[in-house]
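Human:
Care to share another protein and its fold?

Assistant:
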Amino acid sequence: MTDIEVPGPDPDWQEATGPPYYTGKNPAYQWSVWEHCSPLFQMIGGLALPVQPVARRLRLHVERSWDGLDALSVVLFRLRGFSFAISEHDGNPAGISLVWLTQGHEDADKALDILLEVVGIGEEAVAFRGDPHEEPTAPSSTIHEDTLLPQGPGIILGASCWARLRRIFSAPGK
């Protein structure tokens, strides 16, 4: 290797991963692998438990990443023909792990049922089914009565997934 010395960062540059994004003097903005690929995923529900017990049951390696909300734990795996991701944000006050399909599928309920069966947990572990950000009339979203998701002013369905999740997790009454 050559003896090329790269100068350190300018003293007024913020961390490339830290909000607010695209502000400050650092010319670079870094995004995580999770932020890069998760917009392609289909949210199919939420589990009222952390990622770790599911990962332990299936002998999965929990990866650490981050996104615009917070640091998170995530597992990506394939199970009976479905490709899943389960993510849990560190700062999520609701304590819900989100379940995603990494490839869209019309039978999301079947995928979630298979996950529950293989993991050995029942419907009581499901906080909600479907994507809580879909239009309320969407037939695939089933939210359990004990899961309080905010509705009304301030909930913007057209906003990005992370912006909507941020509103859900920071809603009054949580």
In short: The helical segments are 33-37, 51-58, 108-119, 161-169. Strands lie at 42-47, 63-66, 71-79, 82-89, 97-101, 126-129, 142-143.
